[in-house]
Predict the 3D structure of the following.
Amino acid sequence: MTAYNLNAYMPVIILVGFAIIMIVGALIVGRFIRPHNPSDLKETVYECGEAPMGVAWSNFHVRFYVLALVFIIFDVEGALMFPVAVIFRKFNEIGSGSAVFVSLLLFIGVLLAGLVYCWSKGDLDWVKSYTQQSFNEERDEKKLA
Amino acid sequence: MNSSVVSFFAEAPPYQMAVAKLTEILGFDSSVLMAFVTFFLASFVVVNVMALVGGLGTYAERKISADLQMRLGPNRVGPFGLLQFLADGVKMILKEDIIPRDADRFLFIIAPLFCLGGVFATLAVLPFSSGFTLTHLNIGVFYLLGVSSLVGVGIFLGGFSSNSKWSMLGGMRGASQIISYEVPVTLSIITIVILSGSLAFDKVIGIQGGLPHQWFFLHNPFTLISFFVFFISALAETNRAPFDLPEAESELVSGYHTEYTGMRFAFFALAEYIEVFVVCGVAVALYLGGYQVPFHLSELHFLHDTLGVPMAPARMLGQILEIGSFVTKTIALYYVVIWIRWTLPRLRVDQLMTLCWKYLTPISLFNLVGAAFWMWAFKGESVWTLLANLTNSVGGGH
């Protein structure tokens, strides 16, 4: 039985190998023909010609975190939908397509409810949800003063 | 079993003779060894051709942009400036290799590897033709989605490791953009998977035909919309204009590869151009009939039985026709990608997210429901088949 014939995956390893060979090879060949005059100024990072201030590794804005969460939910749901999508045609042929259709609808319904929730919460806005909040806080502070 | 370039060649007598001979000499079953060698040679050809495509991609980009802006573009190196990419390559390799002092050296060095490795790994399932595809994995589409995400890792690592503010901003944007647009891409692909009932590229293409009305593009209204959603999201995933925010030169200098010089930069660029070709190829395979040739011209029984071409050349000729069909459509889409780049202005980052989450994602969810309904109600027949059935039944009724 060749159902688990892993030979078909050989090109994947070969191709990734080619990528490694290509990068390493080009850099090694280049080492012999390219100039190498390091200087202090050359090795600073570019910051519009000014001396760089501090490091770039800072905290991420919280919106990236929310975005990543939403993405993970959607992507996992997408991954879970693939098996259902594959068997749909076969189930249709044996006459029980309705079961798959209804379960797919339920699943998409949950997904859609999540999207609507995120939308109404303002998590899909890039700017507004945070500025509105800070605007309100600022206004409240002014009122107190 | 997964068919592949090996199983295509394995049908030819010389291949079997070579396997038998090797088995005789080496004293063990050498079919796996022979498969490895075949895969190696085929991958070598594919990688070189794709590197050439990437190089010519940069040339095409400049030449087409020049056309659109009524300039000449590169015209000094070689005929029509065709060798410009070689000159660029020589220049790149002669450039000094600078790694910033403050950079994270290890991540800085392996970041281009993620980009190029991810893109090359997608080539394994790109269906050039029914025979000359490296491998028709039974989970081809799913594999492609997974492996192409590696490019996003490379882009973010490139931005993060440089320790430059511009790179960091570009990397952040790149990562958030790529993962956001992954969702509409996945949902659009599921639309096609529902209608074709398979994840393997050869099955998806096999269901379609050579003529436009047999493609999934014109299969039903939902796949038509789904194609455009897929294409727009794919543009964003490959960081092409109007979605090239990670490398927006007017605000971020050069984005995630600001600190990269010489060959390291060249690999980022190469990976991007090959990825555009791969994405166009996937769009062709899923929506535009892939390698199908109109009127079954490439099929063996037509070439062999009707035209009387001998068996071995007929097989080769069929493959060449299929590759021609695939490459023609892909290059046409490639042209559209470049055309879009030099026509539309760049989006702002909040517009980008709005487009993805508030337009494309709901539309692709709607498409998904529509395609599922189509499959359930019409058994996945295309609009044209249904219309033909309708006229037949009306005609037969009176």
